Amino acid sequence: MHKSGFVNIIGNPNVGKSTLMNALVGEKLSIITSKAQTTRHRIFGIVNGEDFQVVFSDTPGIIKPAYELQQSMMNFVKSALEDADVLLYMVEIGEKGLKDADFFQKIRNTSIPVLLLLNKIDTSEQQILEEQVTFWKQQLPHAEIHPISALENFNVEEVFKRILELLPEGPPYFPKDQFTDKPERFFVNEAIREKILLHYKKEIPYSVEVETEEFLEDEQIIRIRSIIMVERDSQKGIIIGHKGSALKKVGVGAREDLEKFFGKQVHIELYVKVNKNWRSNSNQLKRFGYNN
Question: What whole-number distance in Å separates Cα of residue 116 and Cα of residue 135?
Answer without folding.
Answer: 12
